[in-house]
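Protocol step 4 of 6: structure prediction from sequence.
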Amino acid sequence: MFNKKEHIERVIPYTNKLVTTLAKQGIMFKSSDGDLENVIFIKNNKELKISYHSFYRFSGICSLYKEGEDKKLEVIYITDEMYLNTFIKPIIENYFK
């Protein structure tokens, strides 16, 4: 059975790294908004809420495919860190532009 708390603990090193990177851009992080299970990013008077489900990747993309030189498909497995940096980080940065 899926355990949210255990999963969050497993990805904390990657989320902490992302939060630190965003803080250098003035984007602050709040880990919870209460009962709705959202993380919150704040810059100036703007606020972005992202569900735990999306931010901590309870489910989601796990692999991509690219066509190799010989026309065979190559699998690229998406790690938690890749997911955060490739999908979540650009969403947050673009929101606060």
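Step 5 (inspection) to follow. The mean pLDDT is 93.
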